[in-house]
Structures are given as structure tokens and as C-alpha cells.
Amino acid sequence: MAANKEAVVILLDVGPGMNDGEEDGPTSLQQAKACIGMVLQRRIFSESKDEFALVLLGTEETANNLADTESGEYCHITVAQNLKQADWKLLQFVQDIEVSMVSADFVDGIIIGMDVLMHQTQGQKFAGQRLLLFSNFSSEYSPDQVDVIINGIKKTGMEVNVIGPTSLGHGNKEDEVGHEDRNHLRNQKPKTAQQLSGEALLQRILDETNGEAYSFSEALPALTNYQKKNVQSAGWNSPLEIARNLRIPITGYIKASEFKLKPWKTACAQRPEVKVLRETTYHMNDEVQTEVLKQDTVLAYRYGTTLVPFSEEDKVNMEYKTGDKGLKVLGFTKQDYVRQHWFLGDKTMYIVGKKDHESAQVVLSAFIRALYETNMVAVVRYAYSARSSPRIGFLSPRIKPSYECLVFIQLPFMEDLRRFIFAPFDLNKKHVPTVDQLKTVDELIDSMDLTTASVGEDGAREEALKAQEVVNPYIQRLYQCMQHRVFHPEEPIPEIPERLKAALEPPEEIINLAAPVLEKIRGLFPLEKLITKKSVETGADIFQNGDKAGGDEPEKKKTKVDEELEGGLAQQMEDLVSKVGSITPAEDFKNLVALPHTQFSNICKQLGSVILQLVTDPLANTLYHKTLSCLKVYREESVKKNYAELFNTFLQNLKSSLRAKDKELWDRIVTEKLSLISQEECSSSKVSIDEQINFLTTKEDSLSQEEKKEEIDEDEEDLLAMM
After folding, report:
1. Which residue from 155, 241, 341, 466 has the highest number of Cβ atoms inside 10 Å of its Cβ?
2. Which pTM value belongs to this model?
3. Phi, psi (5° rounding) for residue 388?
4. pLDDT above 90 (res 720)
5. CB of 452 closer than 8 Å to CB of 463
6. Could you tell me the sign of the dihedral formed by the alpha carbons of 700, 706, 709, 711, in that order?
7. Sign of torsion, CA 366 372 376 378?
8. Cα–Cα distance between 351 and 517 in angstroms, integer?
């Protein structure tokens, strides 16, 4: 199996010359560290197997295998880290590097980097070996071993990349460099003769070894984007069955697929060597979060108020068993009949004839051209393997000068389609657009056409925001925040960088083209501020004047009341609930009781209905805490209002039902001491202290089975009457 990892030696010059930079801008060393940080972050987030070594040029000490202190060769060069996978420790080490006061020969540094690669890759398989040099070449060097370096790089197949303040070979001439480098040259000091000579030497090495050089202004924007590397998909071999006696061997390749962030195991770990143990526990949705064993649980789906269990046995019985692998043509239809909003799936696949199977390629080519000439597509059944659930899709012909293929896109089954019916706009004549409005909107769409929104180097209009050139801002932002949290766990998330904000804005060309049309739209579609009318239902519940709130009240009077309450009490009431709901019944009850002009008995009946819904729910055992909180607030407010009759009657009926059907909930009521309201607590109560105490006394009833059954039936009738 071929290796898919790369060995990289980073050569970083930390000598005094790296302290130079733009006026009021970052130094060469700071920019170099930023580039190295981006390279390492990419590998950490992708959990790449690539290995990195770090060699520092210009250190006070010397630590490398080739150093000779007597002759002074290879001095002030330190191998700070041997080859290993990128981690946060190495990234933090790079960020802490400071400029030294000692210079080193960058040619010696390249030789030491080659030595590290040669010795530390022995016995291992690497897909490639690379030297990555960061320097501004201001230190002295010895060109004696340049030929040795060139021959060694060619022999081993190493790649050499050089990144510096500006691109190599341009000297101090602004007219020979790019726009970004031109700005750097204007702000930086002119290059010295030593730097020009060193760049010329590096240029010779790169020319003879097919190496590449970049400036910081070129490298940083490219490295800042955490773009996923394009991966050549493995071919999927299967037959394409057009008819019973016509089966074409084909190979499918994934052309485009949805990018999904995989769960990281070690990418964000401060100590990746520590093993992470995962433990899953299951708990009931009750007050104490009672733990249950996995074997005591079963999957269930809710159908209305009924829970329908779905066991593993049911799942196995309903699973798709086996079928034929491959693509099977079900029929043909016109290309125009396949609507784009029917396209499903998370990938697109290109179908070609099987490699090294000439007859299959010839037959498939004829099939592709027949579909193309008739403007047809083939509707097919697709199954990745014999045990995969079959899907439906279509094959569309695609013919290019360099290749021809079929494009597979998934389609929905009938039950996957959802039809939504909306009222037409012309029901209200005010909403029917005029001819000028329709024409202007068409102009706006044309002006914002991305296919011609950009201007190429040759001056011709071309597509803007091409998929292969645009990065996903979500991924960029996520990785930025993760890196910040690793190094600064106590600090808040940083602000969104300007480059990401710019990526979320429409292209400037689009804005300029659409500006005149937008002005026309502002004139044709005037906006009016609408004042939302107060809800009649809410007002009727809160302000009840007689049998019908606001029944035949004159319009002038209603308007005056609204104006008087505008922004005051009416605005506050607008946010309040109008009845006791099942989501937060206790809070709703307290809020409604606090309102003026409300009938306490009506609100109590609403709360009682909600409590009965909770105790009769199939998941009543998971709602005990909500039921108890409702009873508590019901009792408290009844005492405050000196209105005990409703609560006492409700609790007595509830007790009879719960002791027969849900003893666990009744036991909790006893534990919470939610008894009847006595005369001492509320003067309107007719319950004595003894009755209050005896009400919660639990004792076994000495009843016959028939008597108990009759009692249960009566309790159910009472509950129904209460509801």
C-alpha cells in the first residue's frame, strides 16, 4: 500500500536580519512564523500523517549532527525538533521564537535539512520529501557546496520551496513584481548586495531542481484558508444494465460531494498521548435523573399521544435484505422533464466505461451519444452494494473535447415529495404587481447574474465566485475559533477577520451593476410602516367589560383606549400569556393571577385541565416535576386569594384517581405534603386540621376486587367530568 504522508523539514532563519520589515508592519520573522503556523494548523485540523522537523538558523547554541566546532562549520544551527506529526506543542514553540543576535549560513542550513530528511526517513515510507526555507538571505553564505546540494536534491527527489519578503529574482524593481509585492518594496528598505546575491544563488538551486519561491504576501492568503485537499476518489465498479441481455461494465467516480466535518479525536487535545475514554449512560427525565441500563431501554416513536415501541427485532425485520448491485435502467425521459428542485443526494458521480475494457467503453460511448442526440436521460435504480438500500436517480450525458461520461444524480421517491399549497397573490388586488414592477425585478435579476459578474485579465466578462476558488467561511471561522480556544482557553472568541467578512459580502462588481436598478425598485416598491393592531383575543381575556369585551363599544372609544395605552400598559400586556399553556403552566398561572380584572376561578379551571393532561399523558412518569410544581402554585395562590374550595375539590378527586392508577405520583404528593387547605390557612376553607392530616395518610383499603373495580370506574368518570 502506497504511503500517503510527507516528510517536511522547516528551515527558519532567526538571525538579526529577520527583524527587518515594513514600516509600522510585521517583521520578516513574524510573517515567517505566521506562515509556519498556518502550515501546522492545516495538518493538525486535518489529522494529517505528515511529519515535520524544525531547524533554526542563527541560534546562540549549536545542535546538529554535522557541526564541527573546531572548523566552525555548520555552527549556530539547531535541530529544534526531529520528524514527527504536527501538534499544538510544536505550534506554540514556533510562536514563542524570538530574533537572535547571531547569523548562520543558509546554505549550511539546507545541507542540514537534507541530512535530517535522509537519516530520519530511513526504514519508513513517505510519499514525498520537502525542504521549506524561510529567510530574507541577509546573512553571509558560502557557495562552495551548491553543486552538491543540487545533485543531492535531484538524486533523492526532494522538493524545495522558499518563502521570503518578496519573490526571488526581482531585485528592487517595482515594475517587475506583483501588486502586493510592489507595496512591500515601497515600505521596506532596499535590498542589500548580500541579499541580492543570496537570492540569485537560491534562484539557481530552484531552477535546476524545479523548486518554487513565494513571497509572504502570496503565501499568507493561500495558507490562511483551511481548504480541504482534493482527493481522487476510488472507482466503483459495477454493471450498467440497459436490458436483460445488455450489461455494460462501468466505473463510477465521485465528482463532487458534500464536505462534512469529521469528529476529531486528537486534533484539539493539549496532550494527544492521553487516551480518551468515552462512557454513555441513560437516564430518565425525572427530578433525580434516575439511571437505567441500556438493555432496559427500547426505541420508540411517538404517534400522537401514543408511544409505539420499535425493538431491534422490528428493525432487523424491516431492514432491506439483499438485492442486485449496480445501475439498472428503468426507463427514459426527456431531459427537460427532470426538474432541478428534484435533485437529491450529497454527491454527484461520473460514470465511464471500465478501464482496460475497450468494448465496454465503445458501447457506453454509443449509449452516451444516443442520449445526447435525443435530449434524453435514463432513469435508473442505483445500489452501491448487494445489501445497500436501492435509490432512484438519472443518468445525463456529458460530452467534452477530452472525455465523455454519464452524470448520476439521485432523485426522490414519491413519498419523499412534499406538496405545499399557498394562497395565490392575486386574492388581494393590492398585491398584484404592475408591468413596470415585474420588468424592474427582471432587470435586477439580470444585473446580479454571477456568470458575467467578473472581469478577466483579458478584459472579457467571466463567472464570479467560482466553486473551485471560493472557500467555505464556516470552516475558516470554526478553525480560527478552535485554535484561539486551544491557546487562550479563558478568553472570549475573537472577532471575525476582515477577510471572512469580505467573503460573506456580494462582489463589488455585482453591487455596482445592481445599484441603478435598486434605485428604481425603491421608487416602484414604496415601503410603509404598519402599526400592528392589538390582539382582540388577548384584550378580551385581560379587560373583560361585561359578557363580551368590547362588544358594541363605539369605534371612537376603542381607538381612544388604544391610544392611551400605546407604549404603556397595553405594550406590557401584549407580551403576557392569555391562558395557561402546557409548556410552562405554573409560570402562566402566576402571571395571569397577577393581572387585574381576571376571574380567579376561570384560571384555576385552566390549570386543572393542564394538570389532568399531564397525569393522563403516556409519558406521565417523566412529567412528575411539572405536575408537582403546578399543584404547589395552585395551592399557594388559592391560599393568597382566600379561595380554597376549588383546590380542595380538585385535589380530592385527583387523589382517588392517582391511588388507583398512578400510585408513584401520589406518593410524591404525600412526600411534598401537598394536602388540602385547612381552616387555619384560609378562612374560606371547610377542612379541619385533622382532615388535612388524615388526607395524606396512606393505608390499604380493605375492599373486595369488585368494589375496587367499581371505585376505579367511578374515579375515571370523575376525571372525565373534571376534564
Report:
1. 241
2. 0.55
3. -80, 145
4. no
5. yes
6. negative
7. positive
8. 44
